[in-house]
Write a structure and sequence with these properties.
Pfam families: Hemerythrin (PF01814). This protein is an alpha+beta fold and 329 residues long. Helices cover 60% and strands 6% of the residues. The chain has a four-stranded mixed beta sheet with strand order 2-1-3-4, with helices on one face.
Length: 329
């Protein structure tokens, strides 16, 4: 996860993996970028998302056509060049004009799509955990010193933002665990009963720990700022978060090494694989409906584009449209 934390003047609370794009040489003079299409088009939202990760300033021009049909080609204007077409044509045009950061990725043909979905969710959760741990450590180190960071406000304001960030992460983590328990693990259990017992038990042990950390944050929030109890609370919180981070990383590594590769051996038909794949996104519907951008912040640009591309593969176009439209807001 080293790329997630490049040298930056931003506060710990603000740094995101997409900041790694600043490692690449920026375009000396940013050309004018305009995209013409329907405001309700899923394809238009997808292309706007791709341009966002190229660190380009985009002017979206809604057309008079109110249809959301993605059969209608979009028009993309970059500087003096204009291209009209569908997803692959427009994405290739963007990649050719602005190769960094790359948005292309390669999927192994033999790897079940469910594995990629689960792996990318692990990546996002791992990064957000790393950020919250660094943030907690920073708060604990500062202790009672009234160092105000304009990016996060007063110490009390920062603590509220810290708690909100953890609550959002907790929502994603819990729904991800439910996705595995309700969708992924049952597929493996049908092939080998008891195979996922240890993973399910770890999920059950993690829940009270994660909720306990949330309650600790609430308790610290009502303490006198800078008091011995306040500083001790922050120190204990930092320790508990580091322990949770270590356990989650080990848990994810075990799943990726011992469980997920076995999905290929379940010999599901193509239709069955697609059904399980779509059930994964359906299981994440709640958090993806209001925390989708938060979730995508935890991925590198190419990973975020991969996750969005996976969503685009779903046959449930209503589900696809509802998720993709979120990222265009």
């Amino acid at each position: 996860m080293g790329n997630c934390f490049p040298q930056s003047k931003k506060s710990t609370a603000e740094i995101a993996p997409c900041d790694c794009i600043r490692r690449f040489k920026p375009v000396p003079i940013a050309p004018r970028v305009r995209l013409y299409g329907s405001a309700s088009s899923t394809l238009a939202a997808y292309i706007r998302f791709a341009l966002l990760h190229k660190n380009l300033s985009l002017q979206f021009v809604p057309t008079d056509n109110n249809t959301s049909s993605d059969s209608e080609p979009l028009v993309l204007e970059i500087g003096s060049e204009t291209v009209s077409g569908h997803r692959e044509t427009l994405l290739q045009f963007i990649e050719d004009k602005f190769p960094h950061p790359p948005l292309r990725f390669s999927l192994l043909d033999t790897e079940p799509l469910v594995v990629r979905v689960t792996w990318l969710q692990h990546k996002s959760i791992t990064w957000h955990l790393e950020r919250i741990v660094r943030w907690a450590d920073d708060l604990s180190t500062r202790g009672g010193r009234r160092t105000v960071d304009p990016a996060v406000g007063s110490p009390r304001m920062e603590l509220r933002k810290f708690g909100k960030n953890y609550s959002q992460l907790l929502e994603v983590m819990l729904e991800h665990a439910q996705m595995e328990e309700r969708v992924v693990f049952p597929v493996l259990e049908r092939a080998d009963r008891g195979l996922c017992k240890a993973a399910n038990e770890e999920h059950a042990r993690d829940l009270p720990v994660m909720n306990g950390i949330k309650e600790d944050m609430k308790s610290i929030g009502v303490m006198d700022y800078g008091s011995p109890a306040y500083n001790e609370g922050l120190s204990n919180l930092s320790t508990r978060l580091k322990s949770l981070q270590k356990h989650c990383k080990e848990h994810f590594a075990e799943e990726e090494k011992d469980l997920l590769p076995l999905l290929e051996a379940t010999e599901l038909s193509g239709e069955q694989q697609m059904r399980v794949f779509e059930q994964c996104f359906d299981a994440m519907r709640a958090t993806h409906s209001h925390l989708f951008n938060f979730f995508l912040e935890g991925l590198l640009p190419s990973e975020a584009m991969e996750y969005v591309d996976l969503i685009m593969k779903c046959s449930d176009k209503e589900l696809t449209a509802s998720m993709i439209q979120i990222i265009a807001k």
